């Protein structure tokens, strides 16, 4: 940045570490899909158990998102993120000792708690660290944390797991990610300013809730129709994205593709979601209406899924459908994070607003993979998956339309 002060440059660097910590958290979520074929062979994990393993990491977010959002506001944003990284490290290390599905499920649930303590404070911390004119762009970058971490996990996981025997290769993968979480806990502790030392960017407070109690903050959040609409919209997006991307390694493995090809194809499908997130940040900065971005995202996801899972389509067209599904679907999370900053009832309910969104996002991710797996089992294949996605996208479009009516377009 031109004419930037040393403090601004330092805070921008700290914001990048915050976003990188989110990527580390997403790596822990995304480490499982490439390991599912190995876990099936080594531990006898079934398809339905695989669905619950994919979604179990969302248990904490599904049940405690709102309360955790309030807690991190009280405890401190930086301290919460550091604690979350250490919990992730512990759970991943203990998970590497699993001898069956039960222990692995329990450690995935614990990882979910760590994940929640990282991703909930991050948007508020980014808002505090970056200048107002850079906020939409940085929130677009933050929105890409999940696909970036997932893509890296899908790409690196198979390679690292195949360095040794299958029986311990996946355990090494779990331990390496545990060490990475510890490293970033140290980096955040060193580079991010202390909670009391971060200057809060000026932001008008509504409803006179500057010194509201915890009960008042929760009440303000839950009484906001906009917060509910954003949360439900996030659930419609997150559940279908994790289901499709999470099962791609298994789908391609059943089709007889080599693990290296599966890794590249699935990582590419996750990575293109980053494009949509970054594009949303740029377009929002140019005053493109949020509803337009949400509508394009849901329409593209439904069309891409119908093409991807169409039994008569050529394999190249099917993969193109997956890319469209993921890339333009990336417009949705960045747009919703931006709306959360603007439509939160007050400035100090941003964390609880994001927490409630995360709670419903987690519910979508918890229910999505088992639902898709159940439909696939009943249908004897993946041919009905596109119709499941289509229904979720129609619901998402209706919710997005209602959000657009919540404020005049100029105020969104």
CATH topology: Growth Hormone, Chain: A
The CATH homologous superfamily is named MFS general substrate transporter like domains
Distance between the termini: 27 Å
| Helix and strand pattern | HHHHHHHHHHHHHHHHHH
Identify low-pLDDT runs. 197-210, 408-412
Return the domain count: 1
Structural class: mainly alpha
How many strands appear in the DSSP assignment?
0
Helical content (DSSP H or I, runs of 4+): over 70%
Indicate the proportion of strand residues.
under 5%
Mean pLDDT: 83
Largest sheet: none
Assembly level: single chain
Number of helical stretches of at least 4 residues: 18
CATH architecture identity: Up-down Bundle
The level-1 CATH class: Mainly Alpha
Please tell me how large the radius of gyration is. Answer: 20 Å
What is the overall shape? globular
Structure keywords:
single chain, 412 residues, mainly alpha, Growth Hormone, Chain: A, 18 helices, globular, disordered C terminus
Brief summary of the model shown:
This protein has 412 residues and is an all-alpha fold. The protein is built from 18 helices and no strands.
Structure description:
It is built from 18 helices and no strands. With 412 residues, the protein is an all-alpha fold. It has one domain: Up-down Bundle (Growth Hormone, Chain: A), CATH 1.20.1250. Helix 5 runs antiparallel to helix 6. The longest helix is centred in the middle third of the chain and has 30 residues. The radius of gyration is 20 Å and the shape is globular. It starts with 5 loop residues before the first helix and ends in a 6-residue tail after the last helix. The C terminus is likely disordered.
């Amino acid at each position: 940045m031109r004419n930037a002060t040393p403090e601004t440059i330092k805070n921008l660097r700290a914001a990048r570490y915050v976003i990188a910590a989110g990527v580390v958290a997403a790596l822990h979520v995304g480490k499982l899909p490439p390991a599912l074929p190995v876990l099936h062979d080594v531990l006898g994990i079934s398809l339905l158990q695989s669905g619950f393993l994919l979604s179990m990491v969302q248990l904490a977010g599904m049940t405690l998102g709102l309360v955790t959002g309030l807690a991190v506001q009280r405890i401190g944003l930086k301290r919460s993120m550091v604690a979350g990284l250490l919990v992730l490290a512990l759970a991943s290390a203990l998970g590497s000792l699993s001898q069956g599905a039960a222990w692995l499920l329990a450690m995935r649930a614990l990882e979910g708690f760590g994940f929640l303590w990282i991703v909930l404070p991050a948007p508020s911390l980014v808002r505090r660290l970056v200048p107002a004119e850079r906020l939409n762009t940085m929130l677009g970058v933050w929105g890409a944390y999940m696909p970036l971490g997932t893509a890296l996990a899908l790409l690196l996981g198979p390679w690292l797991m195949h360095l040794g025997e299958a029986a311990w290769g996946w355990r090494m993968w779990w331990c390496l990610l545990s060490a990475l979480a510890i490293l970033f806990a140290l980096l955040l502790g060193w580079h991010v300013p202390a909670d009391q030392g971060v200057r809060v960017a000026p932001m008008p407070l509504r409803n006179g809730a500057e010194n509201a109690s915890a009960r008042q903050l929760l009440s303000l959040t839950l009484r906001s129709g906009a917060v509910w609409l954003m949360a439900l919209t996030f659930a419609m997006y997150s559940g279908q994205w994790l289901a499709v991307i999470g099962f791609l390694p298994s789908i391609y493995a059943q089709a007889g593709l080599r693990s290296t090809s599966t890794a590249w194809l699935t990582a590419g499908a996750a990575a293109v979601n980053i494009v949509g997130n970054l594009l949303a940040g740029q377009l929002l900065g140019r005053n493109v209406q949020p509803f337009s971005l949400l509508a394009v995202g849901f329409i593209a996801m439904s069309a891409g899924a119908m093409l991807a899972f169409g039994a008569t389509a050529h394999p190249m067209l099917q993969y193109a459908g997956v890319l469209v599904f993921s890339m333009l679907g990336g417009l949705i999370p960045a747009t919703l994070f931006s709306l959360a900053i603007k439509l939160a009832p007050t400035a100090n309910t941003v964390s609880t607003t994001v927490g409630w969104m995360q709670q419903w996002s987690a519910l979508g991710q918890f229910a999505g993979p088992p639902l898709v797996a159940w439909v696939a089992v009943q249908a004897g294949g993946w041919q009905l998956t596109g119709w499941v996605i289509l229904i979720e996208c129609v619901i998402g479009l209706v919710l997005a339309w209602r959000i657009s009516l919540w404020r005049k377009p100029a105020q969104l």
